[in-house]
Amino acid sequence: MACQPHGAGCARMTADATPAVQSATDRSASVRSASVRSAVVIGGGIAGLACALRLAESGVQVTVLETRRKLGGRATSFTDPRTGEVLDNCQHVLMGCCTNLLDFYERLSVTDAIEWHPRVYWANPPHAPDVMKPGLLPAPAHFTESFATMRMLSLSAKRSVARAMWRMLRMGATGRAQWEGRTFSEFLQETGQSADVVARFWSPVVVSACNLDVDQVSAAAAMQVFQEGFLANRQAPLMGLSKVPLVRLYDPAEGAILAAGGQVRMGVSAISIAYDGKRVTGVITDEGAFDADAVISTVPADRLAKLVSATMIARDQRLQHLDEVQSSPILGVHLRFPKRVMDLPHLVLPGRATQWLFAKDVDDAAADSAGTQLIHAVISGAHEWMDLSEQEIARRVLEDIRWALPAAEGVEPISVRSVKEKRATFAVVPGFEGIRPRAAADGFDRHGGIRNLYLAGDWTRTGWPATMEGAVRSGYLAAGAVLGTPLLVPDLAPARLSRMLGVAR
Q1: Quick one: 418 and 435 in the same domain?
Q2: How far apart are CA 328 and CA 336, in angstroms?
Q3: How far is CA 100 from the centre of its chain?
């Protein structure tokens, strides 16, 4: 579940709860490289849109090429032909620590579409759900009060979780980098976490954030989730959910890019990147050639591999590991019930195959359906689900829903729609960080590198796992490389106590 809008909607939150984001206007780049007057961005997903908007704002004549007839990439919506409802491919979540994503939403003027949730609910039948929420203590102790009252974990389990958290806090970023070649399960074993604690606490968080379970994911990536998403700053774990279909968040990007002097061409497929032996000269598409001073690819690694020639691969080491980028699937399941079965906005299902439930109505027609309720279930790292029929998927998800929601017992859904995304995200496995390419060729490339070819996409070297924040960061990094000026929005600063204890090391 990717991390995962701000602005007017967020500005109305209290100072303690609002993610810190500078004014977008203050950050607009005012200069550009004299040698780059035009650029082509391949891909109209989040990374491509973020990159194109920053370039256009800086005076570059930018053209976005998108194969599909809608924007947003994997963070998008579709109309279910069975019901006519507008449904998201999968629930996407943002957090208070997603500073660049929040900046991008501010630039698109869609921040009022985000609803912020300071509480996270954990199912614990037959008891009422447990609640994690920031308390009165400063970070990194802000969850101490609510965590201590969670009934789903025993006292000894809570102590073991606290020991692991303390160790991650003290090691900081420097220490976690030493774990990049190992799995997070190795760290959990080393810190004495029982199988039950792993299943009920660690696994739901890690698989939701990284789309891989603890025995597959790089320990460094998982540690970052807890260090920066839980421990560093009390604003960081705030959870934001879109109140509108995802496609409505990114549709405004076309108008914003046009207003800044760029253009967006949907329904145009890139066939190859043109290369003259020294530099790229543009993009060859099914509608002809688009010449440019710079080309920015924001498509996934497997798609990029089809756009570059063997000569280009030999010239640029960033292109030499594209076939090593693995992917991980996500399954989203939409179930409409004939009556309300869930009162909470969301629910974590610890120890179950279905990790999250979200109560939502994604279009006005559905919201007006008398007495019905739409529940969206999310299964991340869904390798074992990809070959199942929709009927079997519905059976398994309903079993988890009825375990978590007593009101759903005996209630059959009116409709079920499953959405399989077999290549939903890249797989941040141990060792992956070493092959993630930078946005621009650098002086350390023994092959020389292709200087005016830039790479973006959440799979590139963003410093983040596969999230919407990572996608925006990649777009900003690529645009900054083109312009020769840094564009990344600073991360949330660690709280004073967190910094003193070592999380910023």
Answers
A1: no
A2: 27
A3: 12
Q: Is residue 89 part of a domain?
A: no
- Tokens 């949907």 locate to 266
Identify whether residues 435 and 317 lie together within a single domain.
yes
The full 3-state SS of 387-451, as one line of letters, equals CCCHHHHHHHHHHHHHHHCHHHCCCCCCEEEEEEEEEEEECCCCCHHHHCCCCCCCCCCCCCCCC
User: Which pair of structure tokens corresponds to residue 374?
Assistant: 């739409």
Q: Is residue 276 classed exposed, middle or buried when 0-12, 13-18 and 19+ CB atoms within 10 A define those classes?
A: exposed
CA distance 361 to 21: 29
User: How long is the chain?
Assistant: 505
Q: Which residues pair with 124 in a beta bridge?
A: 127
- Closest by CA to 63, choosing from 263, 251, 297, is 263
**ω into residue 237 within 30 of 0, thus cis?**
no
C-alpha to C-alpha distance for 307 and 319, rounded to whole angstroms:
11
* Tokens standing for residue 243: 């109140």
- The two structure tokens encoding residue 464: 């983040």
Q: Give 312-368 as a DSSP string.
A: HHHH-GGGTTGGG--EEEEEEEEEEESS----SSEEE-TTSSS-EEEE---SHHHHT
At residue 165, the 3 state secondary structure works out as helix
d(CA 8, CA 26): 16
Domain that holds residue 171: 136-233
Cα–Cα dist 411/6, whole Å: 37
Q: SS3 breakdown of the chain: % helix, strand, coil, rounded to 5?
A: 35, 20, 45
Burial class (CB in 10 A: 0-12, 13-18, 19+), 263: middle
Give which of 168, 285, 139, 302 is closest to 226, Cα–Cα: 168
Backbone angles phi, psi at 338, to 5 degrees: -75, -5
Q: Are residues 300 and 280 in the same domain?
A: yes
Series of mean pLDDT values for 10-residue runs along the chain (505 residues): 34 34 36 74 99 99 98 94 93 96 98 97 98 97 97 98 98 96 98 98 98 98 97 97 95 98 98 98 98 99 98 97 98 97 98 97 52 97 98 99 98 98 97 97 80 98 96 99 97 93 79
Nearest-angstrom CA–CA distance, 235 and 163: 23
pTM metric for this prediction: 0.92
My answer on whether 345 and 420 are in the same domain is yes
